[in-house]
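Structure, all two chains, one model.
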Amino acid sequence: MAESSRSHGPDGSVRSGISRRTFLKHGGTSAVGAALLEAGAAQAAVDSSMQDGANEVLGPGPIPIDLTINGRRVPVQAEPATTLVDILRNHLGLTGTKIGCDRGACSACTVWLDGQPASSCMTLALDARGRSITTIEGLADGDNLHPVQQAFVEHDALQCGFCTPGMVMSCAALINRKPDAGIEDVKAAISGHLCRCGTYPNIFAAVLAVASENRRRGT
Amino acid sequence: MATDNQAPIDQPPLRSQSLLYGIVGQETRQVTRQVPADEPPQLPVNAELRSIGKPIRRLDAVQKVTGTAKYTFDVQLPGMLYARQVVCPWPHAKVISIDTSAAESYPGVRAVHVLETLLQTARLRDPEAEARNKYPTVRFAGQTVAAVAAETQRIADQAAKLVKVEYERLPHVSELVAAMDDEAPIVFPGPVEQPSTAGGGGAPEGLPQKGNVRGPNFGMPGMTPTGDIDQGLAEADVVVEAEYRTQVQTHVPMETHGIVADWRDDELTIYASTQHTHSVRDEAAEYFDLPKSKIRVISDFTGGGFGAKYGINNFGLLAIHLSQKAGAPVRMMLDRREEHVSAGNRPNSLQRVRIGAKQDGTLTAIDVISWGTGGIAGGAGIGFCYNALYPCPNMRTEQYDVFTNAGPCAAFRAPGQVQGIFSLEQAMDELADRLQLDPIMLRERIDTKPTDDMLARAHERKIAAERFGWDRRRPPNSDAGPVKRGMGMAQAQWVYVVSPPTTVEVRIADDGSVSVYNSAQDIGTGTRTVLAQVVAEEFGLDAENIGVYIGDTRFPWGPPSGGSRVTASVTAPARNAAYAAARDLAARLAPLFDDADPDDIFFAGGKVGVRGNEGAARPLKEAAKEAKFGEISKLAKRHDDYEGFVLSGETSISRHGLGGVQFAEVAVDVETGVVKVERVVAASDCGRPINPKLVESQVIGGIIQGVSYAIYEDRIMDATSGHQLNANVDQYRMVGSRETPEIEVLLIEQIGAQSSTDARGIAEASNVATSAAIANAFYNATGKRIRTLPMNPANVLAALSA
């Protein structure tokens, strides 16, 4: 596997030791691989809720939740069961983050938690406290698009565009941590994302163009 | 329908004109056509143009990569309520009573509405048949019964569970073959009708119906049986005969179906995720008895449709009622399960095919009988490819709809044709094999209809075969190991369709800036961009300089994004309006250039000048301000094609079609049954490509959907419960990044000499040949035919052991 931080097994298990037939049998339920949640991100979420104290009772009514979104501290009032994507879209009007399946299987809702992609439909807002949340609205530097955004535009790596914000977030995270990413890296980075228009080849081309430029510049 | 306006004349005077015709870079010649007198001069080939034919960036790309593009899903209005449907858990039931009181008194609930009229279903021919029922009969698990609107989505979800519905269950049948049995439970208590949508589907009126089986339907006009099948088969040297099965596929647009309805003071505004803004307006007007002038439909961005997003649907009816009752805007977006179960699908098929041919490939008989189920909706035919592609004197395509207790089908990217081509092009491959002809050679001999698509395919076969490396194709089953590789090809055909009501307005503001208006939506195909490119050409501007205003029924009538017709419909009137506006502008600016002849005025790079004195050109903005002409507005309506249509109306069909040829290379693991599509080369035609980059994107998308259909997708119904088992995107398998093959697209420029842009469509033609090309490659790899889709391990292992 190209990236050690990411598990693509359907149950999050390490893939070594699984026979080919067993893998096909279990993996056979989804061609795209359902798991996006980073193993590290999930662990961090558990850690942060432990720090809050095991006996803390919250809700069911709205409670104050402090979030850091796109570099700004954002206090919100929401029920503890509220997902991060619900906060972003319905409390804060940040509708760039989409919902395609609402169960962590399409990755349209991808945002960054501390720079790592995460499914915001599968993340409780409470668990995003203390973490730096980046959404598609916060990716560009003012009018300067992130190189991945710019490459998506140049390579027509989008059609209807509904999956695009999530795709961009995962691809930009890949480039940030591996500036000279190769094709297998790109395929892995978006293996949990669904695009029904079929933009995958143009996404590959876009991200590889950024990687190639990075290699040329030696970054 | 289209509004009348001053610009169009139904029968414009004609002039005889010589026009360029043919495939650019190959064979072109002059043809004489009767052209409307107000038509601009024919465009030269793309290489000689500045804006048209250039692979410029999609105009709304930046909005899409920054998350600022607002879809219906993103509409948030002050005081907006959230809706949730109440759906029936049983596949077939009579609704006895509905008690909404607990839901209505739930805190935060603002309105509850029970559905009185069911859309998205075939309709009983006898309106009295179920007239005594108070509520629509439930005929599939997941059918809408009522809906709740509340202050938050969570409250709506909770309250929907509090609506108490008493059902009387009825026997159900959810499988195609089971439903064909004389003893099967009956889905409808009498014969039904099913009109088509703009995307296709539906079936002619008045067909016979016995039990759940409706037909025979011989398809579109001109598809009635010809000749004598038995005689044709008797004359044949070779007969190929086989049974093919295709599965139900669901559309899975990433943005689910939905609307936001905002009814206030007898005016209704609807934000819709739709493929046709006007279809939403027209149905809302019909069911709510409102004048169309009081309804506005807005669709800034639609997150995919693929054929299923037309009209207001049951959820839309409910949302509008809820908005009226609550006096507030109501957002009704389907969830992913509802989308799979109730928002449309491609019907399955069972096809029995017999084809007879002489030793040289001459076809003597084509006989096809097909059954398919679109659940509670009709339109499960196999398209028109059998009649459209290869001429044959003895021909019969007999198609039957079979009703089942399952969600309604909807048009889906080349409805019917995808299923039909899967069998037709495999049968042709088998025929070539039996005749010991190269599959390309067989097509050379039998693909002979005098149409533009025939000419396109002939050229495409050559260029694609060469690029693909067809000469490296080996005999079937050449690999000794468990992973076997093979190559296959298949041909495409789709109709070339135009909506002549399409009307485009071009305005020039008094500062010289140009904008274009049409109600068509952009579902991801690039409608904004191609409109701007065509208009920009007439003003010597860049497409980014053109203001494009679309996706709103306040603008002149635009076509549905269905049938691959938008670019063919909108670009010609856009060019005509832009041409007229530019000529008008030239006349008004001529006085600034020593009263030059307006015909000598030119526009280029944001400047205006006089030919022969290019150095004196000045900025258009400055000249416009000085001329003080107010505002120029021109409307133009889509003229009929210069040669006319074989079928005229809101959907006008040309005798020419769209072609395309695809080659696929696959690897089949015969031990596990896993098929991997490694490479696809497609040669495609769309008349004159307005933006080759965006065309290529659509072709890639069509191929990927074709691979997805061929290998992975399958709606799985549980016969006992009547429920779909995989109504989500993790168990409903689709192509993702890892399953995407290497794809290469070769696009030709074909000038048909039929309209002022000669642009045609691409979406559907790019999708139809893929599964057959893969199946033929499977045969080449393994020496076995796979006639059942999808090519998942179970079906593959069954085919290999047959």
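Residues 1-9 of chain B have pLDDT under 50 and may be disordered.
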